[in-house]
Write a structure and sequence with these properties.
about 400 residues, mainly alpha, 6 helices, rod-shaped
Length: about 400
């Protein structure tokens, strides 16, 4: 207990001096360290501020550059989209022209086939594989070839329209993404350190797996532009091809149509000339028939006129055959009567030409019937060619579409 109440030890004055000096030295040292830290902190703050401002300024520039890049490609895409849309619209009008041209081929083909069918109704020798039929067959082949060509071209046009629309869709999707990206970067460009809605984002630094490189980004839009340009050029070439096909096919059809019409006109002239000749021959035969009928009547009258004289001569001879005895003399009268009978009989026999004349009359009748039938054949042919076929063909017009 006595120890607890013992007085604390006393220090030597030198210890006291040393302690004071140490406190001063320690304080000065701490102050120096603090001042250095304050200076370093100020320098660091200034450096960080400058770096932050520089970095933010650089980011702002990068955002602006990115916006310019997006705007550039957006403009490129817009231009290509406008071009491909316009080209598709024009190609659609060409498709309509093809469809109208294809539809217009059906009537001429139908008429050509009807003409061929009608001409099968020609009769007799007129059922000939003439130039008209050859050209009609060729016309049908030309029209069928044109139809096949137009159908193939129409299929090609439909496919090109599909490809144009596919390119248009890709451009629109790209443009939609570019518009969204530009809106986002516009928003980012508008943000400042004092913007009210800025906030911390925990996952801001997380890189998603669908990020692409700038090169890939450029290539993507460039490919879309190139594809659109390629399809536009293909479409332009196809339109030129369609123009040529429509012009050439219309020219070919008109040329063949005129060739067939010329063949029809020539053939109708030939048939009319043949019919006129037949009618001339018929008139000659009818005249000859009338003459032969008169000849037969004259022959019959001549034969009838000889019946009296021959009867008289034969009666006289019969009577003189009854002369008695020596009076039955072959005298001059007997001789002359005998000659008379023989002469008249011979003359009558010479007029056997009646049978020949009647045979000729029958032949003339057969010839008349044959000529009338042949004229009817020609009239039938003319009716088919001139009325049935040519009137149908006159309604056909080959137009340029």
């Amino acid at each position: 207990m006595a120890r607890l109440l013992q007085a604390p030890p006393k220090f030597h004055p030198s210890d006291w001096d040393i302690a004071n000096k140490m406190q001063c030295a320690s304080t000065e040292s701490q102050k120096s360290r603090s001042e250095r830290m304050i200076a370093e902190s100020r320098r660091l703050r200034d450096e960080i501020e400058k770096t932050t401002q520089k970095t933010q300024s650089d980011v702002n520039k990068k955002i602006e550059q990115r916006r310019d890049e997006i705007k550039f490609w957006k403009q490129e895409l817009d231009n290509k989209l406008e071009q491909i849309v316009h080209e598709t619209e024009v190609l659609l009008t060409f498709k309509t022209r093809l469809e109208k041209s294809l539809e217009s081929c059906k009537e001429p083909l139908d008429i050509a086939q009807k003409c061929l069918l009608n001409r099968q109704r020609r009769a007799g020798i007129d059922l000939v594989h003439d130039e008209v039929e050859q050209e009609l067959v060729k016309e049908a082949e030309v029209l069928q070839g044109v139809i096949a060509l137009l159908e193939r071209t129409l299929e090609q046009t439909n496919e090109q329209i599909r490809l144009n629309r596919s390119a248009k869709y890709n451009l629109e999707m790209d443009l939609k993404d570019k518009f969204t990206a530009l809106m986002i970067d516009d928003y980012c460009a508008s943000l400042t350190n004092n913007t009210p809605d800025i906030r911390y984002a925990d996952n801001a630094l997380k890189i998603e797996g669908n990020f692409v490189s700038p090169e890939d980004w450029i290539d993507f839009s460039n490919i879309n532009v190139e594809k659109a340009e390629k399809q536009r050029n293909n479409s332009l070439a196809l339109r030129a091809l369609i123009d040529g096909i429509l012009s050439q096919t219309a020219s070919d059809m008109r040329k063949q149509r005129e060739t067939v019409n010329v063949a029809f006109r020539n053939r109708m002239k030939e048939v009319k000339d043949a019919k006129n000749k037949l009618e001339t021959l018929l008139a000659m035969v009818m005249d000859e028939t009338a003459s032969q009928e008169k000849n037969i009547a004259a022959l019959k009258k001549a034969i009838a006129d000889k019946e009296g004289p021959v009867k008289v001569a034969q009666t006289r001879l019969e009577a003189r055959n009854h002369r008695p005895n020596v009076e039955l003399c072959y005298d001059t009268v007997q001789y002359r009567l005998t000659n008379e009978v023989q002469e008249i009989t011979k003359n009558i026999q010479r007029q056997d030409t009646l049978a020949q004349a009647e045979t000729e009359l029958k032949a003339l009748s057969r010839r008349q019937l044959s000529l009338e039938e042949e004229i009817q054949v020609k009239e039938n042919t003319l009716y088919i060619d001139e009325v049935l076929c040519m009137q149908m063909r006159e309604s056909v017009s080959i137009n340029n579409f």
